[in-house]
Amino acid sequence: MTAFFALATSLLWGLADFGGGLLTRRNPALTVVVVSQTIAAAVLGAIVVATGGWSEAGPRLWFAFAAGLVGPVAMLSFYKALAMGPMGVVSPLATLSVAVPVTVGLFLGERPGLTQVAGIAVAVGGVVLAGGPQLKGAPVQRRTIWLTLVAAAGFGTVFVLIAEASTGVKGLFLALFVQRVTNVAAGGAALYASARRGGAVLPEGGFPWGALPALGFVGLADVAANGTYAIAAQHGPVTVAAVLASLYPVVTALAARGFLSERLRIIQAAGAGLALVGTLLLATG
């Protein structure tokens, strides 16, 4: 069950990142984050009301609140790092986020078997290669590296927090709703501050009404990914769930290949293959 839900997480996150990347080509990144998360919060609110999720309110929701604060910081740091580039360095480096939940799992006493340890090493190596690491070229700015590391630490922290935010299905819906409302509040405040400084809030054509379905998909796919990851982490070793969930760069690369006809570099194809091998080792270990 852990492997299934963790792989579902990587699929959903990979597609959400692909969709978000396309949307940010025409819209300000912060606007994409706020609008997509607002749609997700509205849908989750309806689900919470329909399922009576409010009855699950308790101290664990503080984990969801914290995840909602950390998430936008990580996302914006990641987008800024990508803008400063090069993507061939930023994308693989961001996969270091897996180190946070794996470290927490080991600290809590999880001890993967030899097969799983091998699977973790192979899968992480595959994910890094699938990002197409840039092995030569101009030096990377120190600020780009720091922003990427902040993003990686933030994403990994969200992994840990959302896994602790609930114990049941109804509680999970409520936790995800709280996280998304916090995301919107934090992102909205940042958007307002950006507008006050003269930053772009809307694209040149005004509010992107035509992009609402795509924005909704990105927001809901991200929510679903958080949910499947929480389930994976609650039903198996966090070390395994985190590594399998971190395979999303492979999905993003394959989506770009399928929808945009982007050619995979040899190093990316090799990384995807290694990631698959690592996944099989983890699933059978």
TrEMBL record:
SUPFAM superfamilies attached to this UniProt entry: Multidrug resistance efflux transporter EmrE
The EamA domain, residue ranges: 3-130, 144-283
Any one annotated GO CC term: membrane
Transmembrane segments: 28-49, 61-82, 88-107, 114-132, 144-163, 207-225, 237-260, 266-284
Coiled-coil ranges per UniProt: none
Membrane in keyword set: yes
Keyword entries, A-Z: Membrane, Transmembrane, Transmembrane helix
Highest taxon of source: Bacteria
A Pfam cross-reference name: EamA
Transport found in the keyword field: no
PANTHER family in the cross-refs: ACYL-MALONYL CONDENSING ENZYME-RELATED, SOLUTE CARRIER FAMILY 35 MEMBER G2-RELATED
Similarity-based family: Belongs to the EamA transporter family.
Stated name of the protein: Membrane protein
Organism annotation: Streptomyces naganishii JCM 4654
